[in-house]
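User: Okay, second chain of the day. Same drill as before: sequence in, structure tokens out.
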Amino acid sequence: MRSENIQLDHINVQDERYRISYYFDLEALIHSIRRIGLIHPPVVTHRNGEILIVTGWKRILACQSLSHFSIPCCVFEEGNDLNVFRLGLEENRTFRSFTILEKAEIVKRLIRFGVSEKVVVRDYLSLLAIPQTMNHLDTYLRIVSLEPETKEFVHEKGVGFPVLKLLVFYSEEERRILLPLLRPLGQNKQQDLLRNLLEISKRDGIPARDVLGAEDIQEISAKENLSPLQIAEQIRNLVLRKRYPTLFAWKDAFETQKKALGWPVDIRIEPSPNFEDEEFTVHFSFKTFDEYMERLAKLNVFASQEKIVPLLRSSPDRNE
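Assistant: Same drill. Structure tokens below.
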């Protein structure tokens, strides 16, 4: 490998065969180069009279934006594209970790350069901190095929793998509908919404777009007095109810019975999670002994009322 000063307009930025990074901010790098210059030269190679970028896309694009005439480069003379790509991969691995989108691009290019899927799983996934399974390879190949709008969302929100492995199972049309709902939510809630939609779609044998197009969901989406976060939360909760209709019918019946009983707001009574057994839990807080005795007195009053019996027997039939 040799060093050479190369004119920027001689570098072919249209041929992206070795490129793995597309979503990044150049401002910090531009500021650094303007102040102290370029510290690490990019790596380039020659193909059919053209100069192609192996590593250093951000550095070259930053120098272009600063109207530099030429740039110092390391020239790698190698005729095999896979070997060139491996060099770029190793150079990047030495000083940074890869994003999920970059890992997906790496996997795609390895296969494009002739590496079999079996060898990618065996020899490369561990280098990228990806579990060595065909299922994970398949998910990353789905990720790399996502449309630019979704990839920009993934980059902007720092979307993690648990959300992405669900998102790839939706159609492009469904993802366009989902992105405004996912954007204001945290990743746990994004995952919750995506998983429940897929389960409803599978259970009812209908596309997810039909679930999202239901009248009750459209009514929430059309509410102009709600913020994007409020709309997303209401739709997420509605989808959760659609996913577990019987469970929420039980919960609603329990709350209705509490209201009919006039249960005090300063004492909480809760069934077991998801009505898994017949146990109930009572919670109350107090600061003084008098408050403590007051809560006990309230409980004693309600314990003597026959109306509490249906509440305590409200555990549903397990066969429903």
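The chain has three domains: 1-96, 172-243, 246-312.

User: Thanks, on to the next one.
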